[in-house]
Amino acid sequence: MVVSANVRKIADARKEVDSLNARASSADALMEGLTVVLNKHMLKYNWVGFYLLEVDADPPALVLGHYQGAMTPHTRISLHQGICGAAASSGKTVVVDDVSKDNRYLACSIETKSEIVVPIFVRGKVVGEFDIDSHFLAAFTPEDRELVEYCAGLVGKRLEKS
Ligand code: SME
Predict the structure, then answer these.
(1) To 10 degrees, what angle do helices 5-23 and 27-41 make?
(2) Which of 59, 87, 100, 157 has the highest count of CB atoms within 10 angstroms of its CB?
(3) Whose CA is nearest to atom 6 of ligand 1?
(4) Torsions phi, psi of 110, nearest 5?
(5) Count of Cβ atoms closer than 10 Å to residue 60 Cβ
(6) Residue 71: CB partners within 8 Å, gap ≥ 6?
(7) What's the predicted TM-score (pTM) here?
(8) What is the pLDDT of residues 16-70, one digit of tens each?
(9) How far is the CA of 7 from the centre of ligand 1 (A)?
(10) What angle do CA 110, 115, 120 make, to 5 degrees?
(11) Atom of ligand 1 nearest to the CA of 77
(12) Distance CA 107, CA 156 (A)
């Protein structure tokens, strides 16, 4: 059977993720490390970052946390804005193959072509999300989605314990 280069890269990244999860001393360290590991291993992941939900803010907002990649003007995003707002308010992963065709999209960099946003849950409630942008169209395959959802799940478990 032919294993694609992407699937091999994902398997390598997943090993690094598991090793990071075993040694990270806190949810914060895990999130920081995940941005570094995915940015380093997955060359098509050009911006990798977390947003955490500030529920007490009025209105509630997604606040930028650890990230790797270019600076973004979107440091606070409300729940009805952007792909980020859509993922957090629906509690569902959003994959956009071509951001130029999605009018919800908030531009972070003119080079971004596709994006995935995966919500993070603690006890069934959305507490944040893992957001990744790519300079390539349709960069996020079902295997990529599984990897990013796996990472978001690890963060949720860690936050649940803290
Ligand atoms: N593109 C996102 C905004 C965040 S930046 O990509 C880092 C959105 O549409 O919500």
Answers:
(1) 160
(2) 87
(3) 108
(4) -70, -15
(5) 14
(6) none
(7) 0.96
(8) 999 999 999 999 999 999 999 999 999 999 999 999 999 888 899 999 999 999 9
(9) 26
(10) 135
(11) 10
(12) 27
